[in-house]
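As a warm-up, study this chain.
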Amino acid sequence: MRLTKPGVVTVTLNAAIDQTLECPGFTAGAVNRVVAETRTPGGKGINVAAFLAGGTRPVTATGFLGEDTVPLFETLFRERGIQDRCLRLPGSSRVNIKVVDRTGGAVTDLNLPGLRVPEEALGALMATLDALAEENGCFVLSGSVPAGVPASIYATLTERLRARGAVVAVDTSGAPLRHAVAAKPDFVKPNAHELEELVERPLRNAGDIARAARELHATGIGLVVVSLGADGALFVSNDGAWRALPPPVEVASTVGAGDALVAGVLASRLEGHDLETCARRSTAFAAAKLAKVGPVPPAPERVAELLCAVRMHPLGTG
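Now compare it with the structure written out below.
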């Protein structure tokens, strides 16, 4: 990935407050006691911006924020040096609740609805992106699509931004992903389930997933990365195909792990690293993030430690 303009912009249409509740022995239908609570600003693009901030390239966040929950996001942007070009809408950004039961090893997700985006706000976002494309060469379109926004939005934005010479990465699911891949972004990162929905057939093992990733790459998408959770990720590009497996790590929160992978891939590829190096570095970065709650980049020393422990497997052509 070679940029003609240095900056990276992340686009978050459905920002969120990520609320994590530590609840030992959580039981549905019973009275449960929470022993700890954490609230962090989130949404996939917001997370990617936080992970990329502090690097060699300027980072800008745009998209939509609910006016009632803006302070949490503004604090993050100020602390991480992220340029804030988000549009404010009346109301609150959605809340995603994770109930974590460490004794039972279970996590329960409760995702509340988000803002409804009026048509005029979508037009204002288009104008903002056009202006940002004047000085920024890479755009990350990620996360779910809120009410009032067509499922084809990421395809529309991909075509619009690529026509302006930008590199475009997409990380979403369902109908928005299906539309987006038809517009041929430069980089997509589905997980295994999202890829299965996209190709409309069961993917029962790593071989099936690799074949489906190759099919997606063959449509004209330069880089396909399939996240596999604790089993690492598959990477397919014109440079070949690799599977990266991280070592076992202590997990404080899985929220944002996929976004850390996206940020790691972009940082590595934009620095000119080959696919194997990119796969190793981004997998180590994502694994190291698991020890942190919220969009907090891991310590470079921890990433370096895990880098040596990532197992790399080249994938054949079958």
